Amino acid sequence: MSEEGDEPFTYEKRVICVHSTKDAIKVTPVDPHKPIPFWVPQECVHDDSDVFEKGGEGKLVVKVSWAEKQGWV
User: Fold this and answer.
1) Could you tell me the pLDDT band of residue 34, with boundaries at 50, 70 and 90?
2) pLDDT tens digits along 8-21
3) Sign of the torsion angle spanned by Cα atoms 58, 64, 66, 68
4) Which of 39, 61, 64, 65 would disulfide-bridge 46, Cβ 3.0–4.6 Å?
């Protein structure tokens, strides 16, 4: 059973992971109008995500508690 706040939240755009460390991934939205990269802590990336490491591309799924802190929810 997951804890409250661990539920999945899918980011609205596909992303490409351009850098990764043991602590975080840096992703860039696949969006010609706003391709601004941002960091996501590894601990906040949900298991349902397509993107975990450099070179990964697809849907970014994060924990809803982190998405709320970003103002996405």
Assistant:
1) confident
2) 999 988 999 999 99
3) positive
4) 61
Close Cβ partners of 42 (under 8 Å, ≥ 6 residues apart) = 21, 22, 23, 24, 25, 52
**Torsions phi, psi of 55, nearest 5?**
95, -15
- How far apart CA 55 and CA 4 sit, in angstroms, is 30
Cβ within 8 Å of residue 60, ≥6 positions away: 10, 11, 14, 15, 27, 40, 45, 49, 50, 51
* Cβ contact 25:17 at 8 Å: yes
